Hints:
Blueprint: H1 7-29, E1 37-40, H2 46-54, E2 60-64, H3 67-76, E3 81-84, E4 97-103, H4 112-122, E5 123-132, H5 144-153
Parallel strand pairs: 1-2, 1-4, 2-3, 4-5
Amino acid sequence: MSFTVGADEYDRFMGRYSAPLAPRFAAFAGVLAGQRVLDVGCGPGALTAELTARLSAGAVWAVDPSERFVAAASARYPGVRVQRAVVEALPFEDQQFDAALAQLVVHFMADPVLGLREMVRVTKTDGIVAACVWDHAGGHGPLAAFWDAAHRLDPDV
């Protein structure tokens, strides 16, 4: 899947979720100085920003299938190697990274199992592969407030 919306428009909606999540997710994954980390499905760069702050631009790689997001992340984070790619076919050698992270991306993968396998392939044997997704079952997705309001108006929704 690729987004056709611009980076600023995406940030206005998703940024309010992805920006505060990024430090928590990076901490959960145990991202530490000295590591080489891949941000999978980087979008315009909420997690990329956090990884760059924790490591350095030279220690962060990022991929996204959207040309607009790749351009935005490249412009926002000079020194980060950002390229257009899908997670199901990562353009990296085996065991290249200490960690591969996917923030709010798995549900957009064409083949999530293959995508996660690719993340494992490019991560060192003792490295970290981590992904986080919306808690749709718990009612905490980005449209939860909309569906709650719709249900109050019409309980059959």
